[in-house]
Amino acid sequence: MKHPVLCGIDRTSHLISLISGRKTALLTAASGVTKSGRPSYEILARHSDLRFLFAPEHGLASAMQDGGFSKEEGVLHPETGARLYDISALRGTDRLVELLREVDMAVYDIQDVGARFYTYICNLSQMMRAAKAAGKPVLVLDRPNPIGNTVCEGLILDESRHSSFVGEYAIPTRYGLTVGEYARYINAEKDIGCDLHVLPCAGWTPDLYYDETDLLWVNPSPNIPSVNCAINYVGSCIYEATNLSEGRGTTRPFDWLGAPFVDEKALLLDMNSLFLPGVTFRALTFTPMFNKHAGEVCRGVELHITDRDAYRPFETMLHMFRHFKKYPEFSMKQNGLALRLGQDILTFDFDPAAVAERAKEDAGRFCENAEKYRLYR
User: pTM of whole model > 0.90?
Assistant: First the structure.
């Protein structure tokens, strides 16, 4: 039986009391919908004076591939009459501050996936900083963390060296917070200090995965089609910075990993010998239709999650990475890898078990520090 849950946008009476009669600006995407599938911008346009829409990576409709931006600059949104902007084009400029000075409140409603390198949370902090400079409040309409809040894993990002659009702050890869809780955390811990308001979900608990609720699953971006994909993404996204295919251009992004030069049987034997919890590997071949190795037969494995609670995708990625480094054809972009990992440890020889233990300790300390910002028990 599915658990009944309301996202912030679905808590209509509370929302109306916060936005009614106010000029608003909304940062949203295709996943910003009500329980019945209505876009959040329709709700805000009906109950407030919606002046601006901001689109993140992949565009307002979330139709663009990895690294795709709308490049909109104040075009008229036909459904609401609001002006539409690509918020990434406003990054590092005073233009966003100028726009927010024209409204009474900035609102955020996008489904996140719970991984540090997913870029929407960077747009959130960007909007929070601009709202602080403009003297305007920020309202985050909270949504569940689709991979649950009970697990933190991965290395802490080194802000002094590797802060970027794919990882801004010193948090673990899988940080175990909803986007509303994350906003509370960075607002206090990173001294953003904006006038922050979070409209929490109702009915959601930290142990629930998104597909255990009665909410609609709308792909947060084109290559995150399921909850299991979002879990695997915590580990598989690292391979974006290598010449391994992470499954983009196939029907199973981040669930399939491989390349033309991989010996899939050797990889399967290597991974099965580790007896890693919660995951089963299957040797496969696949042919991406676009992205890396488009039109080429790739050999590798499929990650089958057998126990979500026991599975640790970050640790699994470490072991697989060590295997891939054995191939002379394997290559990586060291800077891109460090930005996603948060540290540069995998660019050298490493012991997966030792790195996993260090990451466990780091993530544990983060979870303890983040405890006071939690909204759900």
Answer: yes
